[in-house]
Amino acid sequence: MNDFMNGRRGADELTYALGGLSLLLALIGSLFTIQWLGIIALIVVLVALFRAFSPDSPARAHENDMYLELVSKIPFATRGPRAGAAGRAAANAEAAFDRKKRTAQKMWDNRKTTLYFKCKNCGQMLSVPRGKGKIRVTCPKCGTKVEKNS
Questions:
Q1: Strand-pair partners of 147
Q2: For a surface tag, which of 14, 16, 141, 145 has the fewest beta carbons within 10 Å of its beta carbon?
């Protein structure tokens, strides 16, 4: 599947919107027994699948940009999966992941000169220089004092 998707965009905001539209059309068509709405819903799903698996990435990106520009003019409209609180939560999660990655890299780079451990009370990451013997460390977050061999 990775080889097949190589060079393809996959799903974007317009693809999600088309999927939602097709679901809505199929629901309305089945509730009110309007057969042609079901056919239109099927066509919309096929267009969404075509967009997701299309190798013409610049054209699909242009279509998605036009869709986002159109939706941005609608007041109170959600703008895809990254709109509003969900978007802020996703951005915060990405920032937290980046922080953890940087911290892990820093800990790896300094592993020979610095000892890292967590405070038993609050979980704050603490660091002390290696090779200093038994030292008393005070957590800056909660004030817990710990004796540690460095």
A1: 136
A2: 145
